[in-house]
Fold each of these.
Amino acid sequence: MKIYNTLTKTKEEFIPREPGKVYMYVCGPTTYNYIHLGNARPIVFFDTVRRYFEYKGFEVIYVQNFTDIDDKIIKRALEEGISPVELGQKYIIEYFKDADRLGVKRATVHPKVTEHIPEIIEMVKGLIEKGYAYEVEGDVYFAVDSFPDYGKLSGRDLDELKAGARVEVDEKKKNPLDFALWKKAKPGEPFWESPWGPGRPGWHIECSAMSLKYLGENFDIHGGGADLVFPHHENEVAQSEAFTGKPFARYWMHNGFITVNQEKMSKSLGNFFLVREILEKFPGRVIRFFLLSTHYRSPLDFDDKKLNEAKAALERVDNFVQNLKEVNPLPGEARKEIQEKITNLLRDFNEAMEDDFNTAQAMASLFELVRFGNTQIASGNLTAGDKKLFEEALNVYTRVFGIEFGVLEEIAGEDITPLVELLIEVRARLKKEKKYDLADFIRDELKKQGILLEDTPKGVRWKRV
Ligand SMILES: [Zn+2]
């Protein structure tokens, strides 16, 4: 299996630290709001990585943290009149609702910063003792000049960074690029006691402390969005390697940005989408399918049209699953040519996934399976053995992509039942008055909205399609 490693900028053969086990850490969300689409991409992609390893028989120890204390959380908590920990608890619950809808499995551990303050303090203490960090008036900074490898992950060197960065001048820092490991509490802020007085951890140190606690030194995979490479992950490398004296994560994987109409998604541009908002219009598995339809390192452009395309593509698979359910196969074993074709398609699937998790390519094999399967059903020659093989192959895709096929699920929006029933009633009255044009108009327009009316002997039934 080959993985593109940001650290070496090459695709490398994946060799786990321990045979049969994969230890991985992915930076999780900050708990001050619902997750947005940019958060969802790494969450869904790395969940798929984990699922693929599990499908291959690995045991995966998967850690995804919650950043539940930082400036944004403190500000938001003040606005809402609750404590930062309460705010965190609220958005952690909301996170799991969205993650469930997206088919994301629970991590082995979801550590929270506020529950790991002693570990963080120990690490900061160690870094000061070893000469990599210094305290000034209750703040503790990491001294980037003390770590010669600083910049090795992001490929930047210190001089270049200093020249290019608009780093605010801070009299307290020895080098403007030094970053906070511990922040002295300002009046009114939540704090924890420490050897340097009351304060709270800086952002970067949490991921070093929690990954080392749950995964140990030199663990296998560290993932996150490309926007985290610098400074967050660069700083994680520096702190962790300075502290342990050993290499930190062995494979660094980073997913690309999400763009909206080719522009980077950002709050300031107003093209910022919460997963919760998208779930009002599209089922979670459509969003998941869309996120996996592009290679994870490529930018992914988002709009409703692309989600509709993903929905239509997924419907092709759903229809095949339905056809397969309904077909009455001939008795008999699987035919050799069917067996060979499915084996080849699953081999293509595996090869795509083993080539740096090329989910886009892997999906192509699924659509070939659907196309081929439909022709077999249409031919009338499908045997019971063939049918079973198709079902088993579909199971592989479901397990790894985390997408159930052939299920219709409700979207998260408000209950539209009363409105639809009102329109059904209006349509019935129009028909009574022989105003068939208008009655058909209602049916057709509802269909365009994804609501199908069916006239049955027992009355009108409706369903979402
Ligand atoms: Zn992190």
Note: The radius of gyration is 26 Å.
Amino acid sequence: MNVNHVSSKPRIVIIGGGFAGINLGRSLSGHNVEVIMLDKHNYHTFQPLLYQVAIGAIEADAVGYPIRRIFAGQENFTFHLAEVQKISPESNTVNTNVGDFTYDYLVIATGSNTNYFGNKEMEHFTMPMKNIPEALNWRSLMVQNLEKALLTSDPIERAALLTFVVVGGGPTGVEMSGALAEMRLHMLTKDYPTFKPDDMKVYLVEGKPELIAAMSERASIKAKQFLIDMGVVIYTGVHVQSYNGEDLKIDNGVELKARSVFWAAGVKGEVPDGLPQEVVVRGARIQTDEINRVKGFNNIFAIGDVSAIVNTDTPNGHPGVAPVAIQQGSHLGKNLIRIIKGEAPVPFEYRDKGTLATVGRNKAVADLGKLRFQGFFAWLLWLFVHVMTLAGFSNKLIVFFSWIINYFTRNTDNRMILHNFDTETMKTDPIAK
Ligand SMILES: Cc1cc2nc3c(=O)[nH]c(=O)nc-3n(C[C@H](O)[C@H](O)[C@H](O)COP(=O)(O)OP(=O)(O)OC[C@H]3O[C@@H](n4cnc5c(N)ncnc54)[C@H](O)[C@@H]3O)c2cc1C
């Protein structure tokens, strides 16, 4: 298939229907342009709540939303389910698995992927979580290991099956280890009455000296204290040396036997092929100028996690968080219209409204400018912000009511193994009928 121009309107092709792409697409509504969005998934993923899917707190569909539904009624918008294989700037074409798309303006909003820093062993044996299938893989593995632990008569094997290690103490690692600690405290003995909470172990391993280093010192210390109070064993300032699916070695000499290791230690930009290597900077992000235009190109832009505005204020680009992607998407939409009209574009300025991270029930940390608080009110704010940012009214309701039920029952309802996770191949198998 070849999708060449049929209308005389300028054509803007957006690769990626994440936070950046969606907000860009919306901001182009009603303008005299043709918008084509390409994504390898037909849904938008709300990544901040993936860990809740992974631990069974909410259902998987609640963190996804069909891209076609988001843009229903936007007349200048078309969506195609397509995996981009390459960009060909010399012919203004995007090459995908379903055909080629020509563009006048191209916006790369492909987000980021898990970074194993070249360690193939970690890549094979640890569990990543950047999308819904990966969150469901973790859920399957976790529940399968609990089931196996119940059956084995070997105490060493049982302990390994009940040992959960989270690598990476950023917001995702902290949220995941907190959620596992809650499972240990509240769910384990209800679903598996022969186990005691102490049978399950949760470890958090972080390379930096402190957890959630991007937040204030106070938030970092409080998050660590919350986790310790919940029984999580934390190692900071150390690195995992090796993991072969059974034995995990840390460079402080600690060796653990664990069957479930979750990798939240890094991300890298998901850069499509076809751009020159010199535009790809630290963290595999595409370097852009202040209007998100890719260095050396007139009509190619990059926004969100995959991009980095590199200047003296932001030498490594803006943080890879949803508000940056949302604001860059909306801002670029306005700039593209200005450029098309022959007007001067306006540089992007990030309005940082603050950072929130939750550790568990009634426990979160909040840095909102100079206002820093922790505990119940931070947790309520975290709940509110996440429900309000979720795409789709039905998803907001489903998540809100799931949390109310979870809060009062001190349990979660979504621990079904829908697909077996095969620990030999580290892939899912269809479950036996
Ligand atoms: C587990 C987790 C927890 C997080 N928690 C928080 C949080 O609490 N707060 C916060 O602010 N941020 C959080 N983030 C980060 C936040 O989700 C990202 O910053 C944000 O999603 C970036 O938006 P984006 O549009 O750049 O990319 P994404 O949202 O990743 O979207 C990229 C899109 O591009 C598509 N795509 C990629 N490659 C191709 C291709 N070759 N062809 C076609 N389509 C392609 C993908 O399918 C996807 O839909 C979290 C991220 C993760 C993974």
Note: The mean pLDDT is 94.
